[in-house]
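for the writeup, i need someone to sanity check this before i put it in the appendix. the sequnce is what the collaborator sent (i think, or maybe the updated version? ugh). structure was predicted straight from it, no edits. if anything looks off just tell me and ill rerun, i have time this weekend
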Amino acid sequence: MPVITNIEDLRVLAKRRVPRMFYDYADSGSWTESTYRANEADFARILLRQRVAVNMEGRSTRTTMIGRTSRCPWRSRRPA
């Protein structure tokens, strides 16, 4: 599996793995593709900031869903 670091990496991977008609459909827009271009421009304005060396002490994967407390779903149910 190649390293995926951005959307363009995903596009290249999809182009190789997905049948062309499905890729072309997903990678295109409507008649004028104006919505497609607008979405592309909106996503280009989003900047993701990588945070490294952040203190993780006291962090938890617990959350509340539908009024009930839940742990991280992939965590083992066995006590540590």
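Residues 34-45 form the longest helix (12 residues). The beta strands are 63-65, 68-70.
thx in advance!!
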